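thread: overnight batch results

M.L. [08:02]
morning all. the overnight job finished for the chain we discussed friday. pasting input first so we're all looking at the same thing
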Amino acid sequence: MHSLSDIEIQRSLGTLPGWARKGNTLTRTYQFDAFPAGIDFLRKVADIAESQQHHPDVDVRYTKLTFNLSTHDAGGITEKDFALARAVDALYESDVSPHA
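M.L. [08:03]
and the structure it wrote out:
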């Protein structure tokens, strides 16, 4: 898998509101009503990550989870990162957002 060009990354980011590029990483922070809700969400993301064989770096700060996606063996951002970002967004929209 090869890392995407700057143009490819910008185009794909245009389809993912809330996500940003920081160097060779895609990042987004999600807010939850309570700590256990964030941890429940993280557990579901872990299942998705396992199924995709692509694992995010996650920073847990009480009711906020920040996901950082990068394909380390490709040295940057790849389609795998965007696929996982879309899956995390879909989970958030279906599982959390309507209840917030």
